[in-house]
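User: Sequence in, structure out. Go.
Assistant: Echoing your sequence, followed by the structure tokens.
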Amino acid sequence: MTTASLKEIKKELKSLEEDRVQELCMRLAKYKKENKELLNYLLFEADNEQTYVNNVKEEVDQLFKSIPNITSNYLVKKSIRKILRLANKQIKYSDQKQTEIEIRIFFCLKMKARIDIRYSVTLFNMYQQQIKKIESVLAKLPEDLQTDYQRDLTTITTY
């Protein structure tokens, strides 16, 4: 079975009645948690992006506080990966470059403050990967916004 292209799906959705489109959206949200979360973002949080960013930062902060204070690198890495998965998912929902940069910078600041990444190659590489992503997105922003975020980037790149 072949899947229709996005163009074909869009064309078909335009031809449907409003009630049928609503029914399809509800069915889509019912079967996968990620679809439901995206629909929640689009309906309730997309209008106020700064509040959304603050909520994500608060959630990331709570997860960082829950990281165990033990020397087991395995548990720390596992916790950091979990936090990063959450951050990436929230970034994907937003689809705005400024939101992505703010969340990634916040993640790096928290990681730098909470964990000594110099003693774990995996954690150090994870941290560097986030910095590369920030730099690539930063290059796509207008120049005035770049200078605002450049200071934050300098803060997280110095050890």
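User: And one key feature?
Assistant: The first helix runs from residue 6 to 15.
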